[in-house]
Amino acid sequence: MLYSMTAFARSESSTKNLHMIWEVKSVNHRFLESYFRVPEGLRAIETKIRDVTRKKIKRGKIDGFLKLEHQADQSAIKLNHHVLEQLLVSIENVKAKFGTADVSAIEILRWPGLIEDQISQDKELENLAIDLYEEALDKLIEFREREGQQLETIIRLKLDEIDSIVSDIKSDTKNIQLMQKDKLLTRLSELETKVDPDRLEQEIALILQKSDITEELDRLSIHVSEGRKIIENTGAHGRRLDFLSQELNRESNTLGAKATTPKLTQQAIDLKVSVEQIREQVQNIE
Q1: How confident is the model at residue 86 (pLDDT cuts 50, 70, 90)?
Q2: What does the pLDDT average to over 159-173?
Q3: How far from 211 is each of 31, 89, 123, 259, CA to CA, in Å?
Q4: Does residue 3 surpass a pLDDT of 80?
Q5: How would you classify the pairing of strands 32-37 and 60-70?
């Protein structure tokens, strides 16, 4: 089963004095990275929620934001008077030395540490925050799974398209080589030039060998089969599918370079389109 790396989830809970909200989102990333914004008084939970994230998610950039809303009867602002006094003394010193130090009240309130976080290190509150994060993370994973199922449907469809195009080309391969040989002989006859028959056969064989696409077609079929196996396997799929899409692209490019008929050229273009659509989708897979 495939999992998308893009998702958003939200969980919330209330206590007597607080309303707690976790918002978690994930986006594409080569590895697993997590960033959390939590109130100062709950910094201790970061190690735990990072461990929880690593156990449940293999890849992606995870952003979590914990918001605490105080109930109406609770004051949401508490000043650190010790910091405030030091700050005011510093402002007066600046005024005395430079003659001016115009600072607004809003600017003072923005000073780090001036507004105290009313959330003390409460074990019960910490456990609630961790449990609520796990709930939000599980919702996030469910969303990633649902979107992953849609991506899987698209990728399977594109693999089927590639398989169908390859089958059509294989059925035409013999006719393509015969047509190419006839074309070469026709051009020689038009030149009215005498050519040694044995040498002619050797040159034609060499030209046909250089334009032979059997190997590319076989590798494309193998890659399609491998892609289906990767999807069926467990674990992270994104990197393996990304590498596979690069191999598919390489073979379709080579096939296009060897195309000798308008039909084969168009088929090679159709292959590249399907491969590119797979490559775009796998960038979002865990």
Answers
A1: confident
A2: 91
A3: 41, 84, 72, 7
A4: yes
A5: parallel
Q: What is the mean pLDDT of residues 186-203?
A: 63
Q: What is the DSSP letter of 110?
A: T
Rounded CA-CA distance 206/114 in Å is 82
* Nearest alpha-carbon partner for 227 in 134, 271, 163, 179: 163
Which of 56-60, 124-128, 133-137, 246-250 shows the lowest per-residue confidence on average (mean pLDDT)?
A: 124-128
pLDDT at residue 120 is higher than 70: no
The values of phi and psi at residue 32, to 5°, are -95, 120
Distance between CA atoms of 149 and 160, rounded to whole angstroms? 17
Task: Please calculate the CA angle 56-135-67 and round it to the nearest 5 degrees.
Answer: 115
CA nearest neighbour of 63 among 15, 117, 26: 26
275 burial via Cβ count (<10 Å: 0-12, 13-18, 19+): buried
Sole residue written with tokens 């960038």? 283
DSSP code per residue over 147-207? HHHHHHHHHHHHHHHHHHHHHHHHHHHHHHHHHHHHHHHHHHHHHT----HHHHHHHHHHH
Ramachandran quadrant class, 234 (left: phi over 0; alpha: psi -120 to 50; beta: rest): beta
Question: Which residue would you say has higher pLDDT here, 279 or 74?
Answer: 279
Alpha carbon of residue 161 to chain centroid: 23
Number of C-beta neighbours around residue 87 at 10 A: 16
User: For residues 242 and 7, is the Cβ–Cβ distance under 8 A?
Assistant: no
pTM of the prediction?
0.71
Asked if 28 and 113 count as a contact pair (C-beta separation under 8 A), the reply is no
Cβ(282)–Cβ(245) under 8 Å?
Answer: yes
